[in-house]
Specification:
With about 160 residues, the chain is of the alpha+beta class. It has helices at about 10-20, 20-30, 40-45, 55-60, 60-80, 150-155, and strands at about 100-105, 110-115, 120-130, 135-145, 150. A hairpin with a 2-residue loop joins strand 1 and strand 2.
Amino acid sequence: MATACAFAYSPAASAAEARSEAAVVARLYKDFGWQAFAGQQELFGEDISHQGQAVLSRYFTPALTDLLMKDAACQIKYQGICNLDADILFDSQDPRLIDLDVQTVGSGKVSVTFKDPVTGERKQIDFELIRVAGTWKIADIIYSGHENLSLKKLLSTKVQ
């Protein structure tokens, strides 16, 4: 079973990873999946949805980056939750997991599955990627546990 943390460190492998849809999603979990095993934000930093534009644009399309930035600005303005009330990588406010698996399931489609170690519930989160300037970028995230709720659709909802 593949995991998000299984990366080779040779230059050839790094070049191949940059072209792979699964490698983009795996890198996102490698860089920001710390919330599933640690609660020390002061040591690890902000979650992915509270990163700046430069960091977000490494992983997401310009359109999704813009929507994430707008939601973060809304949270600051209203001092509370706007559209996002869960970690986008885990579809949970208190993520915990084991058996993380990242698989390319079609061109531009990556499926992430994992298991909650307490409840035993399996979750699946699907990523849709497109090429932007020759690099795979995440265009949307689909949460199958919520009637296939789309991150893009959620972030596009007007906050009242």
